[in-house]
Amino acid sequence: MPTPSLTPPSLPAGCSVEEVRQRLDEYLAAFNAGDLQALRRFFPRSPEPAASSWYAVAARDSAGVATGTFTADPEQFLSYTAERHQRGERLEPLEFVAIHSLDNPDGQAERVSVTAALLRQADDLLARPVLAQLQLTCPDRTILVLSLGDSASNVLPDKPEAVLFEALRQRPLVLPEPLAGGECPRSPWAFGLAIGEGPSYLALGPDAVINLGGPLAAAREDGSYRFATSWFVSPDIAGPLLIRGRQIDGAATALLATRGSSTLGEELLLPVDIEEPSSRDEAGWTSWPVTVSLAGPGCYAFQIDGVNFQQVITFQAVTGTPDEVLPLPPPESLPRGLVALSAFRAGPDQVRLVLWHESLVIRLSVGLSGPGPLELAGATECVEEFQGIGPVCWQADAEHGWPQAAVWDDGRRRYHLVILEAKPGSWSQEDLLALIRAFSQAGGVPGGS
Questions:
Q1: Assigned architecture for domain 183-319
Q2: Same topology for domains 17-169 and 331-441, yes or no?
């Protein structure tokens, strides 16, 4: 740590160096004793926590991820403290590093920022020095912000958020390897166009495939491909997120930027709940519009680090537009304004498509026509021929009656359709028949002949 300077000018009344040092010692003593009644006196007592108040702990490695937290509610932080006390956690003072006054927003109490080096240890943590930064009101020395994180930097952070960012940056990238045969371990579909196993999700399409060249990823003059997307964050998660990624079957990097920014980088920090989120719906979900740039085709993975979780999302970038992968019907012939969002070869004679509209997500697998019978578990209706097209079977949705899944064979190709998501009234039997007609009139076969 840099040499501390503890003779700052113009500290507010009640927040002298000695008074704040004593307050910190009292807090650490109550924390180590697990005395929640004593700890409660250190935090705001209003029924509703202040919008600018938050309390966070972040570890720098995977082993300590579960020991972190982020909350704006003092009572939730006290519950976390009680849990950590059961794990034998202790915080011992190493060095009182810095204290300085903060700007006094209109109508708010005067405040100071305090930085201290502590030794953190617990039954599930190796003892290690950590950096703590607190914001206290004066003269009552109430803790409005508390940020504690592992730090290897010899530069003092300018604000508590930086303590968390530094801890997240120190976590190593732990990305998956390609599967046997070089197959990309694509992340599963979650909802809508989002993929991932949570608590954060990437809006890319249910097959976790992006077609370079269109319709989402546009080619750039430098040979890279750029597309706009969004990260969705569960209401259960608060605090900053660090996103980093690269190609796992090659050496390329995946560059990121917040939407509207011209500066792409190898990492992206989303200050969820620290700054005003980009968009938050009534259920508490946060969405962040971002831009992704890829050097070319391959299997890519993003690691997402939050204060108390670590997650990986993997997707595949393939060359060629959906129509180049498989000849498709004219867009105007598709019902409900559906567009082909992605297409990739799932085998030598198999193509998987995603058809999308704002209220409808469809997965369509297309293979060569075969002599065997159509197979659809739970089929509720089958016809031997539909307008010159061979057998068609479908399964009705139990609640709404529209076709939830369908299979058909037009003599050239065999199709298997699944409705992944549909809003009421957005899909019908007539739409299915229109889709069958459109694809059966399109040329080409999955093998490319």
A1: Sandwich (2.60)
A2: no
User: What is the rounded CA–CA span in Å between residue 388 and residue 327?
Assistant: 21
Boundaries of every domain in the chain = 17-169, 183-319, 331-441
Residue 439 has a CB neighbour count (10 Å cut-off) of 24
387: left (phi over 0), alpha (psi -120 to 50) or beta: left
Q: How far is CA 57 from the centre of its chain?
A: 19
**Nearest-angstrom CA–CA distance, 239 and 185:** 28
Backbone phi, psi, residue 430, to 5°: -65, -40
User: In the chain, how long is the greatest CA-to-CA distance?
Assistant: 90
* Of residues 447, 434, 314, 287, the one with CA closest to residue 362: 434
CA angle 53, 58, 59 (to 5 degrees): 170
What is the separation of C-alpha 295 from the centre of its chain, rounded to a whole number of angstroms? 22
Distance between CA 221 and CA 29 in Å, rounded?
61
The identity of residue 96, as a single letter, is F
CA dihedral 209, 213, 218, 219 (to 10 degrees): 120
Which pLDDT tens digits describe the chain residue by residue (449 residues)? 444 555 666 899 999 999 999 999 999 999 999 999 999 999 998 655 555 789 999 998 888 899 999 999 999 999 999 999 999 999 999 999 999 999 876 666 799 999 999 999 999 999 999 999 999 999 999 999 999 998 766 778 888 999 999 999 999 999 999 998 899 999 999 999 999 999 999 999 999 999 998 889 989 988 899 999 999 999 988 899 999 999 999 999 899 998 778 789 999 998 876 655 567 777 889 899 999 999 999 999 999 999 999 999 999 999 999 999 999 999 999 999 999 999 999 988 999 999 999 999 999 999 998 888 888 888 888 888 777 788 899 999 988 889 999 999 988 899 999 999 999 999 999 999 999 999 988 755 565 43
Residue 164's H or E segment, with its range, is: helix 160-169
Q: How many other C-beta atoms lie within 10 A of the C-beta of residue 71?
A: 20
CB 376 within 8 A of CB 405: yes
Cα separation, 3 vs 14, in Å, equals 25
| Topology, domain 331-441 | Protein Transport Mog1p; Chain A (3.40.1000)
CATH label, 17-169, candidates 3.40.309.10, 3.10.450.50, 3.10.20.90, 3.40.50.720: 3.10.450.50
Q: Which residues contact 85 (CB under 8 A, 6 or more apart)?
A: 31, 34
pTM of the model: 0.91
Q: Which two tokens stand for residue 321?
A: 């537009």
